[in-house]
Structure formats: structure tokens, C-alpha cells
Design brief:
With 271 residues, this protein is mainly α. The protein has one domain. It has 13 helices and no strands. The longest helix is centred in the N-terminal third of the chain and has 32 residues. It is globular and about 55 Å long.
């Protein structure tokens, strides 16, 4: 985690450039914006992330409840929205500078990503579809808990059925978000509104997606139930592995804070 975070500015620029092919004129302000974002993130969010990790570290060694998992989701959504809102002024500058060709490239990259997603996770054969999602779920589970027995893996696979029922709905939502983002980019490129108006439009986009519909709620509920099921079938040894894993992430976060001169006492603990 620490190594990835230390390369975050380079990775972020690579991601932006991959989607819009940053021009020579756009490159300096884009790199400066990314540097500002990470400076803010180290100061404002690393302490909160350390707090969340510390709380979860104290929970993974025992019985895990749906409320605990939902709290982690809420913390992630809250921190993600704070990060988006912080980036909005710089994001507005970039969006207002995009050309029609750059927006078309963005749309094409989304289409490429979706084709890859469909090929991997939306196979026509139900068993193959479940296999692909099972492998993804187990990669996360093993990251936290270590290895699983064959009996545990069979139980996890059996418990996936409710989650798999919303696979098509999750993909539909993914595409809809992308389409609305591209439409917003085209609108900003066409009307070139004043920057405050562009910022308001970006925040409205985020607001609209923070009001989930019933389909997303069903998917989220099934994901929470599956997460709880996996956590509570683990052995004491697997729970100890999880505690050790969180210790490593907490230490990485605190080390990054120390490198940046950020006090571990501020801001206040996440609620």
C-alpha cells in the first residue's frame, strides 16, 4: 500500500492521460492539480483512514456484523465524496479544456473497459460467470484472511447466489454512470459555462449518484451479507492473519503521515 501510494501522483497522471490524451498545454496544470490533491489527501484524509483501519482492525478478530460492514462502506463513501469535492475546482478546469476528440477518446476507453468487463464477468454460461466472480471475491478474501480450505471455498461459492442475481444490474449502473459522465463532459465542452457553474454541475453529478435506487440497494445488501458470511466462517488463525494484515496497513498509513509531517492526532476520529 505504501509503495503504491508513493507512486500515486504518477499513476493518477497516467490514468488521466490514458483516458483523454493530455495535451502539451494541459500537462503542467494537470500535474500541478494532482500534486495539490495528494498534498491535501496526506494532510486531511490519511489520519482519518488510519482511524478507520484501526477501528476495523479491532473488529476483524471477532464476530462481524452487517452494521460493521455498512459502517466501512459509509466511511469509504464519505471519504470518497470529500476527495471528489476537493478535486472539483481542478477537475472543472480540466473538463472545460477538453476537446471533442479527447471526449471521444474517453468514451472509447470506457467502451474498451466495458468490453473487458463483459468478457470477464458477464459470460453467457452461468457457471463460468460465477467462477469469474468467485475468483475476484476470493482474491480479496485471501488478501485479508490468508488461505481458505476447500470446504470454506465451497460454502462461499454457495453463498454467492443472491449477489450474482444483481450482476446485470451492476453492469447497467456502471454503463449509465459512464454515459452521464461523457454527456456532462460534452455539455461543459459545448457551453463553456463560468467555472463556478461547471463546479456546480460536477457536484450535481456526484449528488445524483449518492441517491441509490432500489437495484443498487439490493446489490449492496447482498454484498454486505456475503462479506459477513465470509468473515464469520473464518478460523481463529485466519482472524489473526486479518489482524496482522490490518496492522501492516495501519503502519504503512502512519509511516506515510510521518513522511509528510502529518500529526496522527488530527483530524478527529472518523464517526
Amino acid at each position: 500500500m505504501k509503495l503504491g501510494y508513493q507512486q500515486g501522483d504518477r499513476l493518477a497522471y497516467w490514468w488521466v492521460d490514458r483516458y483523454v490524451d493530455v495535451s502539451d498545454a494541459q500537462e503542467p496544470p494537470t500535474k500541478e492539480a494532482i500534486a495539490r490533491f495528494f498534498a491535501w489527501h496526506r494532510r486531511a484524509q490519511l489520519p482519518e483512514i488510519a482511524t478507520v483501519l484501526t477501528r476495523v482492525r479491532g473488529e476483524v478478530g471477532g464476530e462481524v456484523s452487517p452494521a460493521m460492514v455498512r459502517q466501512v462502506q459509509q466511511d469509504s463513501q464519505r471519504l470518497g465524496r470529500q476527495a471528489f469535492d476537493n478535486a472539483v475546482p481542478d477537475l472543472a478546469d480540466l473538463m472545460l479544456s477538453l476537446t471533442p476528440d479527447q471526449i471521444q477518446r474517453m468514451e472509447s476507453k470506457f467502451a474498451e473497459s466495458n468490453a473487458k468487463y463483459r468478457k470477464e464477468f458477464l459470460k453467457s454460461d452461468p457457471a463460468a460467470r460465477t467462477d469469474a466472480r468467485f475468483d475476484k471475491i476470493m482474491s480479496y478474501a485471501k488478501l485479508i484472511y490468508g488461505s481458505f480450505s476447500n470446504d470454506q471455498e465451497r460454502a462461499i461459492r454457495d453463498a454467492m447466489a443472491p449477489y450474482m442475481q444483481s450482476a446485470d444490474a451492476r453492469y447497467t449502473e456502471r454503463v449509465k454512470r459512464q454515459q452521464e459522465w461523457v454527456a456532462l463532459a460534452r455539455e461543459l465542452s459545448t457551453i463553456r459555462p463560468p467555472k463556478p457553474q461547471a463546479e456546480a454541475m460536477l457536484r450535481k453529478y456526484a449528488d445524483d449518484w449518492q441517491r441509490p435506487g432500489s437495484g443498487e440497494q439490493r446489490s449492496t445488501s447482498a454484498g454486505v451479507d456475503l462479506t459477513v458470511r465470509i468473515a464469520n466462517m473464518t478460523t481463529p488463525e485466519q482472524k489473526a492473519h486479518a489482524v496482522k494484515r490490518f496492522d501492516g496497513w495501519i503502519n504503512d498509513t502512519r509511516s506515510l503521515m510521518a513522511e509528510s509531517g502529518v500529526s496522527p492526532q488530527a483530524p478527529q476520529a472518523a464517526r
